[in-house]
Amino acid sequence: MNRVLSLLLALTLGSSALACTPAQSAQRAQAAARATVTQRMNTAAFVYGFLYSNVRHDVQIGAPTIRGKVATVRGTLSIRATERASGKAVQGRYPGTVTLSKVDACGWKVTGYKQG
After folding, report:
1. pLDDT of 8 over the 70 cut
2. Are 95 and 68 in contact (CB under 8 A)?
């Protein structure tokens, strides 16, 4: 009976409705944090493109800490670029923490970021 209910639930809500292991959940939280930071950095590079050229970034993401339906992921964002006006290379490293909320059995959504 439980297998039938699980199958019905999966068909109705999608495969993410099935429980996932703690390791899978951690991997998904880490991937969601990385994808969000990368996407936002790509947008920022486009927006600041009139001031900087050759904008490159690298995202280092650590293992998430999960407590119930909230996860935190610490990481470091490294940015390198060239100032268009001076031709000077600039770079910076910015540590921070991404906060995520659980959206289903194995999915996570970024809900915040704190630099430092």
Report:
1. no
2. no
